[in-house]
Each structure stands twice: as structure tokens, then as C-alpha cells.
Amino acid sequence: MLGFLQRIGKSLMLPIAVLPAAALLLRLGQDDLLGIAFMSEAGDAIFKNLALIFAIGVAIGFSKDGNGTAGLAGAIGYLVLTGGLKALDPDSNMAIFGGIISGVVAGLLYNRYNDIKLPAWLGFFGGRRFVPIVTAASMVVLAGIFGIIWPPIQSGINSIGEWIIGAGATGVGVFGLLNRLLIPVGLHHVLNTLVWFEFGTFKDAAGEVVKGDIPRFFAGDPTAGTFQTGFFPIMMFGLPAACLAMIVTAKKHLRANVAGMLIGLAVTSFLTGITEPIEFSFMFLSPVLYGIHAVLTASSMVVTYVLGIHHGFGFSAGAFDYILNFSIGQKPWLLLGVGILYGIIYFLLFTFLIKKFNLKTPGREDDEDVVAPDKGSGGNGKYEIMASHFLKDLGGKENLAVIDNCATRLRLEINDVTLVDEKALKAHGAKGVMKVNNRNLQVIVGTDVEFVADELRKLK
Predict the structure, then answer these.
(1) How far apart are CA 164 and CA 161, in angstroms?
(2) Are 384 and 455 in contact (CB under 8 A)?
(3) What is the pTM of this model?
(4) 158 CB-near residues (< 8 Å, 6+ apart)
(5) Distance separating alpha carbons of residues 389 and 421, to the nearest angstrom
(6) What are the start-end ranges of the H helices in 114-230?
């Protein structure tokens, strides 16, 4: 089940990747910026069709080779499912869930039937052409089933969403805490999808119902943004300050190397809100430190809620989104003050704890554990070099069963996990390594992980 949920979490990253484009078009087209109506409508069209986009993206993510046929099947499956549901119960609305379920079914059916052989007289419909057909047939059956079981499920989901939103500071605090605690196993994307794209409703100026904290924020809901705002102080100030703390506490002869790595990660976090490479640098070295980070994130969510600050993002809580959406936020200047305060807290707290308990954060490892990074040689690109080292560190091509990736991690299925050399992986550029179980391994690389994954596939 954990592996299945992780596959869903990974697959969600593809459709979520379109949100920055949607948010950018929607904001730039507004009257307070460029005032171009068709640009704004173009961005809004993406938000209005998120469920369909999720169906396509999840299907491609679940397919074994990322083929576009799976995406087409996902779209057809979603249309069949929603059409069937409307005929059975006009009030049923599976929204994002309908897209995710359609994508999962289409992806699994693609993996099962993409190479099916049919009799000669049906040969045209064999292979990949069969996948959309079998997906449509399957979704007809599922539409009938969900027509019966979905209304109480929908009522339950709405109740949970209303409770979380109605819980005020407690609700946002619990969400912030769980969001960070689920990162090690990669399930935070599943939680985020519910809160950011499903919970809460708002009727926009056109009279259409908008669901989810992110779409509601961009639709002008004055109550939206509460499940996003608290991340800005952490991602723009808190974690970059944690990087500074790890730099100043590193051993003097290792400080320059550590600074070169952590400064780049801090800038990435500040500008874009991508934090996993930083978090994995201390997550397993000091679980207590990571637990404190999760609690501080929860507290930031509570503080911004209590202060009545509302801000949102199309991608993540970095400076780009902060500036772009500044004019539609509430009390955005106050958010900078909160961020500076959290930056000071992170720096002082991390510096104290690292020194007090002699935590082995980057640059503080025992000398016998330190491996000098291998920069490679020759004319090959850095991703080729990194991939070639990783292949050896992972036990060779025979030890790799499946190579996949999400936004910042290699997601690998390993035949024999005992052959994996974690120390060498870190020396060759990995920010962290996580063993999910005795077959599944995650290697945290950073935002350029896709290029490393592509090179790794070539070598295999």
C-alpha cells in the first residue's frame, strides 16, 4: 500500500507542474498587471480543467514507459466516468478524485494491455490502440459503481474538509505538521492534493463553484490562502537560515565545500520554495532536528493564520510566487516580518542544537566517514558522470529493476538493497538516501534529477 501511494504521489507531480504556467497567465492577465483579458482566461481555463489534467498526468505517471497513449486513455476514462456519473446523479462531483482514479486505472491498464495481440480481423485495435478502448469499458463499470457509493463518500470528504477549514489555527497547524512529516516517505503530495485542490468551495464572479485552497485563492476568495501562507516564512527564510547554521558549524577544513553545496540549496529554497534537498541533508542525520523543523512549520501556519495574513502560490512558497501574487494577498508586507523572525529562530536553534548534541550535519562527519566528492573527468557532461557513479554505487545495472523519478528524487526498485553504497552515493552528489523497504530506494538529487534519471536509463 505504501508503494502504491508513493506511485500516486509521484504521478501527481506531472499535472501539478502545469500550475505555475496557469498561475502566471492568470495573474499577468489581471487588470492590476498587464490587463490582458484573454491571457487571464487562458490561465483560468487550466484551473477549471484540473481534474482532466490530473487524469492525463497521473495516467502517464503510472504507465511503465510514460507513453502518451496512457494519457489519452486517462482523458477518455475521465470523460466516461464523469458523463456516466452525471446521468446517474446530477449532483455527484468527483472533481480531482475522478481525475486521479481515471489516471490510475488508465495507467494500470496500459501496463497490462499495451502489447496485447488480437485476432487478425481485429488487429488494427491491438497493442496500444486497445488501451483507450478497455479503459472506456472499465470506466463505464466504475461509473455505475461510483454512482451508488460516491454520494456518501463525497459527503464524508466534504465533512472532513469543512472540519479542517473550520478548525482554524488547529487545522492549519495540523496540516503544516503532517505536510513536513510525510515528506520522508513522499506522501505529502497526496495530502497536499486534498487540501489545495479539493477542500473548501467558493462561487466566483461567473457563478461557478471553485474547490481547493489554491484555485479559490486565485479566484478571489478572501478566505483562501490559509493553507499556503505559513510556508513562505519557512521556505524563504527559515530553511535558508538553517543552511547558514550548518555552514558556520561545519569543520573549518570542510566549510568551503559545504558552503558551496548549501548556499545553492538555500537560494533554490528562497526563490522557488523547493526544500527537499535541504531537508534531506539533516533529516536522517538528526530526526529530532527534523521533528523540530516540522513543529516550526506548523507554528508558522498558526502564526500567519492568527495574524490574518493570506497569500498563495501557483508552484511553491518562494520569492517568485510571493512577488507575483503580492497585490492579491492580504497583509503581504507583514509576511516578510514573520519570515525574518523565523529566519532568526532557525539559525539560533539549529546552531545551538548542532553544537550541543554534536549532530553530524554536512561538514561535521567523523573524518573516517568523509569521502571527497568525485567531480569526474573527461569531456562527458556532469549528469552522465553522476549517473555512471550512481550506477556503480547502486550495485550495477543488474541490481536496478525500475528507474523512475519525481521532482527531486530518483525512485528506484532494487533487486538487492545490501549492494547499495550510501556513502558513495552522497559523495557523488546525492543529497540523501532513503530505503523505503527491502526493494524500494529513493535517492534525493535535486531539481535536475530528471536529467540524471535519463542518463541512468541510458546506461542501463
Answers:
(1) 5
(2) yes
(3) 0.79
(4) none
(5) 11
(6) 130-166, 169-181, 188-197, 213-218
Q: Compute the distance between CA of residue 85 and CA of residue 140 in angstroms, rounded to an integer.
A: 9
Cβ-based neighbours of 50, under 8 Å, separated by 6 or more: 15, 96, 99, 197, 215
3-state secondary structure of 63: coil
Angle at 97 between CA 89 and CA 165, to 5 degrees: 100
Q: Residue 427, exposed/middle/buried by CB under 10 A (0-12, 13-18, 19+)?
A: middle
Domain-wise residue ranges, the chain: 2-164, 167-197+220-370, 382-459
Element (H, E) at 349: helix 332-356
Catalytic position from the list 236, 385, 406, 456? 406
Percent of the chain with pLDDT over 70: 95
- Rounded distance between C-alpha atoms, residue 302 and residue 231, angstroms: 11
pLDDT confidence of 399, banded at 50, 70, 90? very high
**Please, are residues 455 and 410 in contact by the beta-carbon 8 Å criterion?**
no
**Residue 259: strand pairing partners:** none
Q: What residue ranges in 173-312 does DSSP mark as E strands?
A: 201-203, 209-211
Sign of the Cα torsion 216, 222, 227, 228 reads positive
pLDDT digits (tens, 9 = 90+) for 70-123: 999 999 999 999 999 989 888 788 888 899 999 999 999 999 999 899 888 888
pLDDT on residue 212: 92
312 has pLDDT over 50: yes
Confidence check: pLDDT of 230 > 90: yes
Q: In this predicted model, what pLDDT tens digit does every residue of 421-441 receive, in sequence order? A: 988 998 888 888 888 778 888
CA dist 179 and 279 (Å) reads: 13
Alpha carbon distance 108, 216 (integer Å):
32
> Grid coordinates representing 410?
530518483
For cell 502489447, the residue is 115
Q: What is the CATH number of domain 382-459?
A: 3.30.1360.60
**Between residues 370 and 359, which one has the greater pLDDT?**
359
Query: Does 406 participate in catalysis according to the annotation?
Result: yes
The three cell numbers of residue 317 are 512558497
pLDDT attached to residue 1: 62
Alpha-carbon Rg for the chain, nearest whole angstrom, is 23
CA nearest neighbour of 239 among 206, 273, 212, 191: 273
CB 449 within 8 A of CB 395: no
Q: What is the DSSP letter of 62?
A: H
Of 95, 325, 45, 42, residue with least CA distance to 212: 95
